[in-house]
Amino acid sequence: MDVMGLRKAMTAQGPGTGPGTAEDAEPLLPRTVVLVGLMGAGKSAIGRRLATRLHLPFRDADTEIEAAAGCTIAEIFARDGEPVFRSVERRIITRLVKDEPVHILATGGGAFMDPETRAAIRQHGVSVWLRAELEVLVARTARRTHRPILNQGDPRAILGRLMEQRYPVYAEADLTVVSDERPPDVTVELVIDALEAHFGVQLPHRQNPGHNQGQGQSNAQRSGRPGKADAT
Questions:
Q1: Fewer beta carbons within 10 angstroms: which end of the chain, N or C?
Q2: Phi and psi for 35 in degrees, rounded to 5?
Q3: Mind giving me the DSSP string for 109-121?
């Protein structure tokens, strides 16, 4: 990627910010919700459903990076290396959480590992870790073939190593919600429960949700950070 391409990737505005879009409505939440977690945790699937439920735009950080850079993430890695990619990713995510109207943002698995990206999310958004167990991640990622990192060896072993490395950092998220084998709409309800408790607001639920409030609050765990009204 040339300098012009990098500059474009770092400063380009995302789609859907013009007049007459969902951003014009009064948001139900004061901050953008940033979904973090490993591949297979359901960030995109849950994020899209959550955005629909809350009448908010949905953004995918990886898609935003590729659209702004004019090339794929794999190409950025191959051509410029991971440090350049993380720099672009950091600037794109910071711009999204700081300057864009409130939305639901799904991030790549490594984004929250970057201290500066993590600090920007903490300052301008609310982070939700979708925590999934190894068996769930293995089953979900086995259905996909576009995850190069899992083609470098035994997927189970690779995911296990990533869990060891990343879960202690993901645990710094404002909220933790279990993502398991239950239908995605159930996980969405748990995220809504956690956001309601965190912000002290009332959000729309399904008329016939597949769980009760007590169950939802038991599965959305506190992050342990002082001063946070995180749901459990």
A1: C
A2: -90, 125
A3: TTGGGSHHHHHHH
Cβ atoms of residues 194 and 188 within 8 Å: no
Q: Give 74's Cβ-side CA count (13 Å radius).
A: 4
Q: Which of 45, 47, 51 is nearest to 183 (CA)?
A: 45
Query: Could you read off the pLDDT of 22-62 as tens digits, one per residue?
Result: 445 567 899 999 999 999 999 999 999 999 999 999 999 99
Please provide the DSSP assignment of 56-122 as one string.
Answer: --EEEHHHHHHHHHTS-HHHHHHHH-HHHHHHHHHHHHHHHHHHSPS-EEE--TTGGGSHHHHHHHH
Classify residue 208 by burial, with Cβ atoms within 10 Å: 0-12, 13-18, 19+: exposed
**Dihedral class, residue 133 (left if φ above 0, else alpha if ψ from -120 to 50, else beta):** beta
Could you give the CA distance from residue 38 to residue 29 in angstroms, rounded to a whole number?
Answer: 25
- Give 51's contacts (C-beta < 8 A, 6+ positions apart): 57, 58, 103, 104
Distance (Å, rounded) from C-alpha 136 to C-alpha 40?
8
Instruction: List CB contacts of 205: < 8 A, sequence separation 6 or more.
Output: 189, 192
Average pLDDT estimate for 147-164: 79
User: Cα dist. 198→39, 191, 228 in Å?
Assistant: 25, 10, 7
Q: Tell me the C-alpha to C-alpha distance, in Å, between residue 34 and each of 93, 126, 153, 195.
A: 9, 6, 30, 12
